[in-house]
């Protein structure tokens, strides 16, 4: 018994010793797993991975953040339900333009009654619901291009559009222009946290969960009374405080003067008259999923002829009401393309069969080989061919008349000259002297005109003309001498002319002034003498008597 136990223990010790010799010692613990030995058996193949679901089509960023904030600034402070209706309606810019025209033609229509009046219009229900709010349509009607850009942004970048609205609302709230009042209720709710994403599992078998940062809060705007909706009016350059993008200023579409809010709008938000509704607003913003939800009950109550199923709670764009307006991004064009399946086969009914195309090609080659030109591919080519054919026919006509194309013009001109020469001969003028006679008549008329202007007849011969030229030269030579003589006479006359009788004459010659004063004094003294002395000093003056004129009296009185 003891021997059996001894042999068993001996065999176990030998086995342990053999294992220590064959296997290397275990490596020290490390974060990086050790590579398996070369002699180890190949590892089993990993289990096949579950195929991932097909990813949604990748959308390009059609608009930048600055452009989105710029175009959404006039709409971001609308109540959520009204904003959802506007975003859906802008994807149909043609229908919006028709609704704006209808609202202008019916200025008193609003609320649910207005929506029922347009139930038979070929518009999308989201556009029909906007006729309940004439002020909103008046704003959208001021810039149709802006409406189309907003709709294209909502189709191509719905997540970015929703984020832009929340970003603008936070700016308005920070500026103190967004708060609850009698017309609206502003509430702040935490946004739903996204599901945690598992990190890649290490080979040790453990799983690490990556927790993302806490999301921003969501600002919700609702009517204070769900049955009465007030449309806010505001200036984006004022209500959002300092604008962050000076290169992208927000547009401002003021309300028309017909609305009372137009006169009360000064700063911040202004509200006009409330619109009583019941079912007109059947959409709402889903901020967590960046989408628009539909209240099926309200929708069906209003749209009797276009009912929805109870499970159709998410809005989907309907390209039928796009009315041919092109989509801006490639993904929307592919997603909302209205081409029906199998429409490519219609080409066969239009004569685009490959076999018939090959037959037409062979027929064209056969015509070319026969010298017949292929049909014209453009209007210009056809016009050139017609003009070329007309020229060919004209040349053929000339040849038939005995005129080649090159000398036809010369022959016609020669014929005209021959007819003119015959006319001259019939009038008694030979062809050679007609030109000379005409030139002589022209010279006679020129000579008569010259005589009328100058008063003298032209020279009869060369000697007379030469004599006239010499006389004219002598006159030109004597002209400077005559000028000098006239200047000398003018100077002499000026020197002999006496001084002018003016107030300053005495200043130049004081002696004359003294003589004039003495003559005045002598005359005054003579006038002051007595009568007797003046009679003695006076001398009698005898004048000859004049005979009376005429035969009658009327003589001079003495």
UniProtKB/TrEMBL annotation:
Signal peptide bounds: 1-17
Name listed for the protein in its UniProt record: DUF3300 domain-containing protein
Bias kind Basic and acidic residues: ranges: 336-367, 380-398, 407-424, 433-456
Biased composition (Gly residues): 549-558
Low complexity: bias regions: 457-509, 521-545
Record's keyword terms, sorted: Signal
Claim: Signal is one of the keywords in the record: yes
InterPro entries noted in UniProt: DUF3300 (IPR021728)
Alphabetical list of Pfam families matching this protein: DUF3300 (PF11737)
Protein's UniProt keywords contain Signal: yes
Superkingdom of source: Bacteria
PANTHER family: OUTER MEMBRANE PROTEIN (PTHR40269:SF1), OUTER MEMBRANE PROTEIN-RELATED (PTHR40269)
Chain intervals with Pro residues compositional bias: 25-36, 43-56
Chain segments carrying region Disordered: 23-58, 172-206, 336-558
PROSITE patterns xref list: PROKAR_LIPOPROTEIN
């Amino acid at each position: 018994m003891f021997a059996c136990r001894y042999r068993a223990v001996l065999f176990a010790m030998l086995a342990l010793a053999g294992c220590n010799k064959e296997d290397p010692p275990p490596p020290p613990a490390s974060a990086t797993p050790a590579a398996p030995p070369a002699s180890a058996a190949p590892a089993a193949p990993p289990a096949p991975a579950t195929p991932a679901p097909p990813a949604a089509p990748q959308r390009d960023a059609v608009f930048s953040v600055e452009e989105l904030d710029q175009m959404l600034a006039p709409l971001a402070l609308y109540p959520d339900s009204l904003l959802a209706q506007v975003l859906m309606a802008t994807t149909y810019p043609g229908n919006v333009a028709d609704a704006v025209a209808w609202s202008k033609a019916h200025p008193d229509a609003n609320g649910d009654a207005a929506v029922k009046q347009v139930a038979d219009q070929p518009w999308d229900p989201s556009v029909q619901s906007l006729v309940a709010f004439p002020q909103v349509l008046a704003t959208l009607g001021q810039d149709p291009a802006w409406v189309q850009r907003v709709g294209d942004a909502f189709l191509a970048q719905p997540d970015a559009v929703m984020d832009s609205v929340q970003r603008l609302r936070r700016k308005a709230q920070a500026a103190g222009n967004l708060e609850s009042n009698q017309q609206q209720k502003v509430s702040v709710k935490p946004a739903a946290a996204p599901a945690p994403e598992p990190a890649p599992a290490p080979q040790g078998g453990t799983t690490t969960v990556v927790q993302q940062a806490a999301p921003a809060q969501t600002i919700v705007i609702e009517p204070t009374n769900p049955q009465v909706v007030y449309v806010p009016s505001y200036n984006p350059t004022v209500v959002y405080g300092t604008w962050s993008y000076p290169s992208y200023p927000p547009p401002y579409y003021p309300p028309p003067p017909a609305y009372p809010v137009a006169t009360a709008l000064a700063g911040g938000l202004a509200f006009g008259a409330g619109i009583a509704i019941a079912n007109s607003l059947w959409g709402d913003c889903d901020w967590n999923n960046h989408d628009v939800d539909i209240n099926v009950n309200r929708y069906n109550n209003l749209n009797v002829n276009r009912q929805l199923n109870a499970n159709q709670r998410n809005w989907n764009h309907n390209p039928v009401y796009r009315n041919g307006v092109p989509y801006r991004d490639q993904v929307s064009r592919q997603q909302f393309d209205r081409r029906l399946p199998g429409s490519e086969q219609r080409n066969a009914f239009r004569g685009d069969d490959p076999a018939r195309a090959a037959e037409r090609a062979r027929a064209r080659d056969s015509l070319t080989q026969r010298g017949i030109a292929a049909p014209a591919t453009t209007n210009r080519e056809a016009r050139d061919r017609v003009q070329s054919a007309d020229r060919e026919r004209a040349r053929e006509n000339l040849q038939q008349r005995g005129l080649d194309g090159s000398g036809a013009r010369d022959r016609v001109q020669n014929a005209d000259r021959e007819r003119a020469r015959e006319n001259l001969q019939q009038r008694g003028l030979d062809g050679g002297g007609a030109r000379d006679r005409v030139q002589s008549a022209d010279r006679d008329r020129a000579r008569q005109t010259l005589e009328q202007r100058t008063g003298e007849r032209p020279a009869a011969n060369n000697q007379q003309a030469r004599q006239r030229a010499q006389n004219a030269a002598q006159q030109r030579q004597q002209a400077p001498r005559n000028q000098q003589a006239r200047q000398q006479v003018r100077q002499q006359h000026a020197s002999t002319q006496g001084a002018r009788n003016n107030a300053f004459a005495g200043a130049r010659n004081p002696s004359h002034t003294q003589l004039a004063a003495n003559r005045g004094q002598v005359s005054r003294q003579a006038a002051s003498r007595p009568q007797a002395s003046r009679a003695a000093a006076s001398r009698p003056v005898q004048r000859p008597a004049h005979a009376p004129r005429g035969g009658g009296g009327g003589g001079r009185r003495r």
